LYR motif-containing protein 2 (Parathielavia hyrcaniae), 101 residues
Amino acid sequence: MRPLSAPWRSLRTYATGRRSRIGPVLSLEHFVQRARALAFYRSILRSTRHIADARTRAETCRFVRDEFERHRGVTDLDHIRYLLSTGKTEWESMERYISGL
């Protein structure tokens, strides 16, 4: 039997669940939750454009970034779902406040 070439070797290690060269391999559910978190982060940044005061806008963006960075290492799916749920609730109430200004 002929040995596998380099591209097929990387596919083989991916299928076996070993760590890849580009980082840890995510499960499908982790991948989906990561995409939801990134989409939520982007929607918050888009929404902050409506804040009139530049200093308040910058402070809000910095706070949002710090919160996402603080929870970057969370891997428990239930905890990730909880963080996204509470974050969306908090941001919706903040949006109502911002639109009232």
The CA atoms of residues 47 and 95 lie 8 Å apart. The chain has a mean pLDDT of 84. DSSP finds four helices and no strands in the chain. The longest helix spans residues 77-100.
